[in-house]
Specification:
Helix content is 79%, strand content 0%. By secondary structure, the protein is mostly helical. The longest helix is centred in the middle third of the chain and has 27 residues.
Length: 107
């Protein structure tokens, strides 16, 4: 068999699967309202993500580029929590390294 025959055979099998009716369990699952609503939301999200620039251009909105906030702004908003946590973790790492050096020197 050459590649063209394999492709046509594969396409015919795929068509048979597509034309077959869903089983009773599949029909019940597809009739679930929550699943339908979730699928609808997912489709909207994917479409918006895919066609966002075209939609913005069509509506003539200016494109907005969002940049990451600077560390100072982030620290102000979070009350310096990130800074405190990072300093604590640095102290713990340096303490652990010091303990390893002490342990190695005692050997």
């Amino acid at each position: 068999m050459d590649i063209e025959q394999l492709e046509s055979q594969h396409l015919q099998e795929a068509i048979k699967v597509m034309e077959s009716k869903p089983s009773e369990e599949e029909s019940q699952a597809l009739a679930n309202e929550n699943l339908q609503l979730s699928a609808k939301h997912m489709e909207r999200i994917l479409n918006q993500n895919t066609y966002h620039k075209q939609i913005i251009a069509y509506r003539n909105y200016p494109e907005v580029k969002i940049e990451k906030m600077e560390n100072q702004e982030t620290n102000k908003r979070l009350g310096g929590i990130r800074n405190k946590i990072s300093m604590q973790s640095k102290k713990e790492v340096s303490k652990d390294e010091g303990d390893k050096k002490d342990h190695q020197s005692s050997l």
